[in-house]
Design goal:
Length: 287
């Protein structure tokens, strides 16, 4: 669907949140079904993965299919490539190659929807906005949780998870040209901590590094929830979605709950579709 040039432009900012970010698929699914055109996309960590998939031309139903296929314990294990835990526990190459295959090795130049992936350079302690080159390389950088994945070394930078400095890139998508911003925050906000810890400990009990991974994830989740609150206050989006995801579906354990997470994202988006339509087509507002 093509709109006149003077119509408001919609930008969607997708947060990090590990497996909980699969709910973003449901958000995109609802927007797509309603015929709402997305003009700009920005994402960090898992939000970057989903944003990149959609911008690369994958339909939400296809992204859902991939998430459900890859979300079984056995297939997740095949994507893990442990290494000596010097720079990180996992190399991340298998995930990079899997994603690159799904999007047919596309670059940012191949995209029809402008996309920005947020990463952080450890060398300069700065937020990096990636919008050129290989999409798979950008995604590999933005998912590089320190201590979990080896940083991506490129152009004199050591790139890690973009969520460290900007886990909900509202300001990024606004700077890209969005007049109306829909921000989706799937982060954990400390509710149901016992269920959160119990679910993760069950998943990680098979590895001697389980306690280390759990401590890293718990620390990250606490830090990111506070950072996102400040981001929302200082860069208020026109629309904010914070899907009510059960505490036991954590950033680690949620991959086996792909269908449930996608349904949650789709359902919460349904409630604001009419308002988004009116904000993009103000002439249709009867008032």
């Amino acid at each position: 669907m093509i709109f006149p040039e003077n119509m408001p432009k919609l930008g969607v900012a997708l947060s990090g949140g590990g497996a909980r970010g699969l709910a973003h698929i449901g958000v995109l699914k609802a927007l797509n079904s309603a015929g709402i055109q997305i003009d700009f996309l920005a994402g960090a960590s898992m939000g970057g993965v989903i944003a990149a998939s959609f911008a690369a031309g994958l339909e939400p139903s296809k992204i859902e299919e991939i998430a459900c296929y890859a979300g079984t314990a056995s297939r997740l294990a095949r994507l893990a490539d442990p290494t000596l835990p010097i720079k990180g526990i996992f190399k991340g190459k298998k995930l990079h190659d899997f994603f690159d295959q799904q999007i047919h090795c596309k670059t940012f130049d191949d995209l029809q929807i402008p996309l920005t992936i947020v990463a952080v350079d450890l060398n300069s302690n700065s937020e990096i906005h990636i919008n050129k080159g290989s999409i798979a390389d950008a995604v590999r950088a933005t998912i590089s949780i320190p201590g979990i994945f080896i940083p991506v070394e490129k152009d004199g930078m050591r790139l890690v998870d973009g969520g460290l400095l900007n886990n909900l890139p509202i300001d990024v998508v606004r700077a890209m040209g969005a007049d109306v911003v829909l921000a989706v925050d799937v982060g954990w906000h400390g509710i149901g901590k016992e269920q959160w810890r119990e679910s993760n400990q069950t998943l990680l009990s098979f590895t001697p590094l389980g306690d280390l991974i759990l401590a890293l994830y718990e620390s990250m989740d606490i830090f990111l929830s506070q950072q996102v609150k400040q981001k929302i206050q200082s860069n208020k989006p026109e629309f904010l979605l914070q899907p009510q995801i059960p505490a036991e579906i954590t950033s680690l354990t949620g991959y086996t709950h792909a269908s449930e997470l996608i349904a949650i994202g789709e359902e919460v988006t349904q409630s604001i579709l009419a308002d988004i339509q009116l904000s993009l087509h103000p002439a249709n507002n009867p008032t």
